[in-house]
Each structure stands twice: as structure tokens, then as C-alpha cells.
């Protein structure tokens, strides 16, 4: 059966509100200036530790403090400020009706990912869910893609659907094409420049893109 992997943040759900609020709380706890709009956007997608280090310029001890403050606020409820993108349930239902294997591969801790999926009614939509570990040892996209592929060794012609450059890069490490989710928070041109096989504007366009890549 064909295997389709999905990123979570910015692909299945619009998690920006909860992430932005939690980043603001973490910055305030560390006495940092209010993050800019561009900084907040850049925090959606990459591993949390990497975002605080590269986007906000924190050193390792402060990264650990920021992650702790972020997760406390996020786990207390901000994670659920992440509505489904329109058309996502219909997309998943169509792919399932076609007999595809579906898995989530996210840089978000897997515990949080499962809670969000349950909250938006997608807890049973996927054959497996793969994400980061809370200790940060597994957090990069290529690592979670590797876990998803290992879980489904018989999955045919795997493809990743994701919304940021790191999704494209993480898929390419394993020889997978990436369908760029153009409805997410990526900057204009980001997905194409990263090497996405195709960029689509809506979830409704994903099935045709998958067919084209697998033909």
C-alpha cells in the first residue's frame, strides 16, 4: 500500500496561535524582548530547541530554560489552540478510502502530537504517529521520518506532505519526495527553493499531486 507521511504543525493544524503564545511566555520569563512577527513565524515548524537557539539566539542554558517555560504554558492548554485546516479531514478520508497507509512525522514531541490529534478528532485517522522525544535526542525531521519508515517497511512509494523547508530536507535524506503544503506558514518561495517536488495551495490538491509523483 502507498505510504503518505504528514507533518503536523502548519500542515494538518494551524498551530501558530498556541505556539506564538507559548514563545511569548518563554521570552518574557527569560527577560527577552517581545519576539517579532517574523521570529514567531520562524518558530513554527523546526524543533523547539533549534528555534530558540537560531531564531532567538539563545545559548544552551537559556535554551533549556526557554523550552521548560514554553512547554509548561503549551501543555497547560495552549497546544489546543490549533484548529484543523479546512479540507484536511476530507483529504485524509479520501486517501484512506484509496487504501493508503497514513502516518504523522512531526518534530513536536509525540506525546503532544497525539493529544492534539485526539483533540481535533484525528486520533484514529493515522496508522502511526511519530515525533520528537522530550529529551531532544530525537527532534529533527529526518529522525522522525526514519522512525515512520521503520514502522511501515512494506509501505510503497512513500511521500511526505509538509509545510516548511526542514520537511523537504528531512524527506530528501531518505530519498522521499515532498509535497509542499502551500496553505501553511512557509515564506513565499521557501518550499520550492528547498526542493519540494510540487507545492499545492490547498489540501484538496494533495491526492492528484501524490498520483503524479507515484506514476
TrEMBL record:
GO CC, any one term: cytosol
Superkingdom in the source lineage: Bacteria
Which PANTHER family does the record match to this protein? 5'-NUCLEOTIDASE, PHOSPHOGLYCOLATE PHOSPHATASE
InterPro entries in UniProt: HAD-like_hydrolase_sf, HAD-like_sf, HAD_2, HAD_sf, PGP-like_dom2
Q: What is this protein called?
A: Phosphoglycolate phosphatase
What SUPFAM superfamilies would the database entry show? HAD-like (SSF56784)
Gene Ontology molecular function, alphabetical: protein tyrosine kinase activity
Amino acid at each position: 500500500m502507498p505510504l503518505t507521511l504528514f507533518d503536523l504543525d502548519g500542515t494538518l493544524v494551524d498551530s501558530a496561535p498556541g505556539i506564538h503564545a507559548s514563545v511569548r511566555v518563554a521570552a518574557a520569563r527569560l527577560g527577552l524582548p517581545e519576539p517579532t512577527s517574523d521570529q514567531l513565524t520562524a518558530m513554527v515548524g523546526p524543533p523547539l530547541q533549534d528555534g530558540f537557539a537560531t531564531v532567538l539566539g539563545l545559548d544552551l542554558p537559556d535554551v533549556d530554560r526557554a523550552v521548560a517555560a514554553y512547554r509548561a504554558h503549551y501543555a497547560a492548554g495552549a497546544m489546543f489552540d490549533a484548529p484543523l485546516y479546512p479540507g484536511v479531514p476530507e483529504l485524509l478520508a479520501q486517501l484512506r478510502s484509496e487504501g493508503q497507509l497514513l502516518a504523522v512525522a512531526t518534530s513536536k514531541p509525540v506525546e503532544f502530537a497525539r493529544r492534539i490529534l485526539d483533540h481535533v478528532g484525528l486520533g484514529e485517522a493515522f496508522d502511526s504517529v511519530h515525533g520528537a522525544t522530550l529529551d531532544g535526542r530525537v527532534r529533527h525531521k529526518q529522525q522522525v521520518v526514519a522512525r515512520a519508515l521503520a514502522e511501515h517497511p512494506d509501505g510503497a512509494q512513500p511521500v511526505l506532505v509538509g509545510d516548511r523547508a526542514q520537511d523537504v530536507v528531512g524527506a530528501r535524506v531518505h530519498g522521499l519526495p515532498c509535497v509542499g503544503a502551500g496553505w501553511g506558514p512557509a515564506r513565499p518561495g521557501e518550499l520550492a527553493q528547498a526542493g519540494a517536488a510540487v507545492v499545492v495551495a490547498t489540501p484538496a490538491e494533495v491526492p492528484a499531486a501524490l498520483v503524479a509523483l507515484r506514476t
